[in-house]
């Protein structure tokens, strides 16, 4: 059975459970929370060892073949172009389409989250490099440590021969174990999708957020099914975009219902390797980088939601200077969400409201009830960006073994 079918069955069962089983009691809610947390921990369980050994071997091979610069260049191109493009798309969409105003909430301002750039930088160089292997949330320190280890092995091939052999063996073993956990996560999606649906039903009942949700859905379809496939076909001559779209089904499903970029990463890596045929030297590097930095979906959703807040609070037109500020801030914040795999979009929106000031400091409360849904769309677009972006990088660096679609996992 194809992997996406397993996950779709699990998600369907979870949605049905949310519709049928009463979740009003405290006991039912606690059980659902426990099962959801258990499923997420299960899905992330093998991520760090797989990343460390896979990245180390990939960087070693890239440096040995002198492909580090070419792969890095194309990854940066994808990161910048997709982030700018989707930010502009979000701004144009919300400026053209006038969504209904949302009633102002009466809630009080809660503790304001923040993103400390200094703290993110310091985490890249902990007092002991092995500490980077203990944090399963912020993946960039692991990437840096593994990259340095792989680059070091390429300095002296004679002395590092045994280390490279060990890392290569551990990378393959870790990947195989990760494959088992990815397969079994389909069962965990029952709890994850049930938890998501319970929250979503409460939002749907109010009806006030439906125009925003419909707009995000339309943009999601436009980006994933139109813009990315046509762009890939244009820049990668001879490529069948439907192959990448088909391979993206499972990662997008996981991203949408979990809203967790780290949980989506192992699923995406398996499809990149076993469905799209991306070679390991690119597959093990590009997907982690995109999981950390490719938050173009978050930039799009943040820009849209912030303008929705402004229009709900005030009937005044938005100045051109404000539009530039919104776009630039959404874009910059999207690159700083690597340490927030879940809920990064709403945190970015909160930071924008407090930074903008002018009486809008509590504006984020307007969209707090729908935070999980807007995060779902943002993470799903981010997952599609990682899938199409990794394929693009592999195509440009000639690191693909094409498989027939009937052999996709």
Rounded radius of gyration (Å): 21 Å
Helix share bin = over 70%
Report the count of strand segments: 0
Largest sheet: none
* Helix-strand category: mainly alpha
Helix and strand element order: HHHHHHHHHHHHHHHH
- How large is the count of helical segments? 16
Give a quick summary of the entry.
The protein has 409 residues and is mainly alpha-helical. The chain contains 16 helices and no strands. It has helices spanning 3-20, 26-44, 47-64, 68-96, 117-124, 140-153, 161-206, 210-235, 241-247, 249-258, 261-274, 280-293, 296-313, 320-334, 344-356, 371-396.
Explain this structure to me?
The chain contains 16 helices and no strands. The mean pLDDT is 88. The protein has 409 residues and is an all-alpha fold. Helix 4 (68-96) packs antiparallel against helix 16 and helix 8 (210-235) crosses helix 9.
Set out the fold topology.
Blueprint lengths: L2 H18 L5 H19 L2 H18 L3 H29 L20 H8 L15 H14 L7 H46 L3 H26 L5 H7 L1 H10 L2 H14 L5 H14 L2 H18 L6 H15 L9 H13 L14 H26 L13
Helix pairs in contact: 1-7, 1-10, 2-7, 3-6, 3-7, 3-12, 4-13, 4-14, 4-16, 8-9, 8-16, 10-11, 10-16, 11-12, 11-16, 12-16, 13-14, 13-15, 13-16, 14-15
Features:
single chain; about 400 residues; mainly alpha; 16 helices
